[in-house]
Amino acid sequence: xxxxxxxxxxxxxxxxxxxxxxxxxxxxxxxxxxxxxxxxxxxxxxxxxxxxxxxxxxxxxxxxxxxxxxxxxxxxxxxxxxxxxxxxxxxxxxxxxxxxxxxxxxxxxxxxxxxxxxxxxxxxxxxxxxxxxxxxxxxxxxxxxxxxxxxxxxxxxxxxxxxxxxxxxxxxxxxxxxxxxxxxxxxxxxxxxxxxxxxxxxxxxxxxxxxxxxxxxxxxxxxxxxxxxxxxxxxxxxxxxxxxxxxxxxxxxxxxxxxxxxxxxxxxxxxxxxxxxxxxxxxxxxxxxxxxxxxxxxxxxxxxxxxxxxxxxxxxxxxxxxxxxxxxxxxxxxxxxxxxxxxxxxxxxxxxxxxxxxxxxxxxxxxxxxxxxxxxxxxxxxxxxxxxxxxxxxxxxxxxxxxxxxxxxxxxxxxxxxxxxxxxxxxxxxxxxxxxxxxxxxxxxxxxxxxxxxxxxxxxxxxxxxxxxxxxxxxxxxxxxxxxxxxxxxxxxxxxxxxxxxxxxxxxxxxxxxxxxxxxxxxxxxxxxx
Length: 530
What we know:
Layout: H1 2-56, H2 65-89, H3 94-124, E1 130-133, H4 137-149, E2 156-159, H5 203-208, E3 212-214, E4 219-223, E5 228-231, E6 238-240, H6 244-256, E7 261-265, H7 269-280, E8 284-289, H8 301-313, E9 317-320, E10 324-329, E11 335-340, E12 345-347, E13 350-353, E14 370-371, E15 374-376, E16 395-399, E17 404-407, H9 411-430, E18 442-447, E19 450-456, E20 461-465, E21 477-483, E22 486-493, H10 497-509, H11 516-522, H12 524-527
Parallel strand pairs: 1-2, 2-3, 6-13, 7-8, 7-13, 8-9, 15-16
Antiparallel strand pairs: 4-5, 10-11, 11-12, 14-15, 16-17, 18-19, 19-22, 20-21, 21-22
Domain FAD/NAD(P)-binding: 128-229, 230-418
Cofactor: FAD
Organism: Gossypium tomentosum
């Protein structure tokens, strides 16, 4: 028995030795798979960053493009091979996992080599401390404020879809459409920051300051966590006046369709300003909007009645309470008519759609907190993600004066919010104190011989003061908005600089009212007392 027992034990030792080695291989396989998956995750992150930056073309020519593309192809190959290993490993066949061990060890070594090469590529990519996405008004004012706060060359880049340096966008619906070639506004005369009385920032200014303008480049994808960016029914004679290129096309069409018929869709800012410009350019103009009166977000019916009468006296036809539902076009794709919901068809040689635009927040969906149609910020324009700021009409920010969150679509806010955000960025870096943004809403417009300004909030009861005769050579009238016994807003058409300052001041001070009849009697002079 003893002899037999010793034989069995001896045989067991002989059998278990390779099995033990197999068990060790399995343990090594499991550990190496964990390492492999960790490395693969890191490689995917590096791959994504390289793809994004390569697509963004902000590498300044320093990246060896062909070599990088080969690297990306190899990364895809190794990912496929790892997927095959993982699939075989999931079959849970003991020997399969054992024999895969050597392959996994090789892949770990290969992945480490790919990671080193990928990180080397990233080292060649040009990066910036600050990037401004979008080349509008706010971009130019932010760049100027960065320079004032102390900016080193190479720290800032502005990425813009447009092919020109930032400019004062309101000019597109005003002076740019002037029919007099000698008086028409053209670049470089309205580059920022002339709109606020500052110096004109020409492309050479950005170059001198070491600010990189990346123009003609549209951002189509943003990964804020990785801090990376990817760049990425039309008819002839139909225009959306949002960029310089749109304005250029409209100007050319105006020249070709002289004395033609223009249909303006929309009765807001752009609609009113473009209708005036087209009338001055000797077009037969018709405005179409669904609202009961123009500029309903600001104008009262009484105020709107004045402007509508004024426009009609200039020969502009106004169709209210309906919308366009389609267009007629000729064989060349040129718009020849606008179909209205009420069945009418308006002849048109040019159509301008001036119904406003939504803020461009889609790039940041799921990455930044939103509120009221914009990106939510605090009083310093910080978003929900550290290091990311939002300014201008994309930002929903707290208005201290009214203790509520709002989004403001106006060039004045674009300029001021850009400056304040840059101050906040620099204050955060230096540890300095900075007051929160304290904005008084402000809007203005100039059409024909008219010019109005509004300050404050248009809520509550209104009190109108006049001369509002649309035939007057220089009409002057206005309105106060009164809430909880206080003036919260004021509007003035035809005011002098001093009078406009007076209505701004009274709108911020919110003085209490004891006698509405007295306010009505005093009118504009009431604001001048403060």
